TrEMBL record:
Alphabetical keyword list: Coiled coil, Signal
Pfam families hit by this protein: ANIS5_cation-bd (PF02520)
Native source organism of the sequence: Panagrellus redivivus (Microworm)
Domain SXP/RAL-2 family protein Ani s 5-like cation-binding: 57-152
Coiled-coil stretches: 106-133
Protein name, entry field: ANIS5_cation-bd domain-containing protein
Origin superkingdom: Eukaryota
Leader peptide range in chain numbering: 1-21
Length: 207
């Protein structure tokens, strides 16, 4: 099943938000559901059975970088409870399957890091803790990841990115310390602009 339009956005973004999950490049972007190696993300087929307005409501929550993961989970749960019983059940199953896929990916990453140097392992654990912190927003997550990478050596971060290519998720900051400043600030600026946009949009739409 290919994911198109808002369903694609929901698939990609919500897939990244659950449990502060790692994103799934390039197959997820193509709507194939592939997350990493042999692990796949489930598709949000429950959105096939809701109205266009309900899809917008879903996206306003899932896309909002001003919300913490816990806040997103709580608000999306409330959204699902306002749908039909069939949609709610499908959403609940999707959430559970997605969380399971994320845990499988983390286990793969843990195994890949096991034989790396202490410096690489420490940076990995630091970034993993940030990615799994459900009490910070996407904006805060990017800022903390960028700071962690700034405080590491270029070679350590390069080795980490080779072992775990998608460790920094949407907060990619480049493989060299000298690139951190320009790329990092750019990502932060764009993320904050998106956050402002969705905050204003959510305030204007009173469903």
């Amino acid at each position: 099943m290919a994911v198109n339009g808002l369903k694609f956005v929901a698939f990609l973004v919500f897939g990244l938000s659950v449990a502060s999950s790692w994103p799934s490049y390039p197959d997820v972007i193509q709507g194939k559901g592939k997350a990493f190696e042999n692990v796949t993300f489930p598709l949000p087929t429950f959105l096939d059975n809701v109205s266009f307005i309900e899809e917008i409501k879903f996206d306003l929550i899932a896309l909002n970088p001003n919300l913490t993961t816990d806040e997103k989970d709580s608000q999306l749960e409330a959204w699902a409870r306002n749908q039909s019983a069939a949609v709610y059940d499908a959403y609940t199953e999707y959430h559970a399957n997605l969380t399971e896929s994320i845990n499988e990916i983390i286990e793969i990453f843990n195994n890949r890091i096991a034989n790396q140097s202490k410096e690489v392992q420490d940076l990995y654990e630091n970034i993993k803790d940030i990615r799994l912190n459900t009490n910070i927003t996407a904006i805060q997550q990017c800022e903390e990841i960028q700071e962690a990478v700034k405080n590491s050596s270029a070679i350590t971060f390069t080795k980490l990115r080779i072992a775990v290519p998608i460790i920094t998720g949407d907060c990619s900051v480049g493989g060299y310390r000298g690139v951190i400043g320009s790329i990092g600030s750019g990502v932060s600026s764009v993320t904050k602009s998106i956050g402002s946009f969705f905050g204003n949009l959510a305030n204007k739409f009173k469903f």
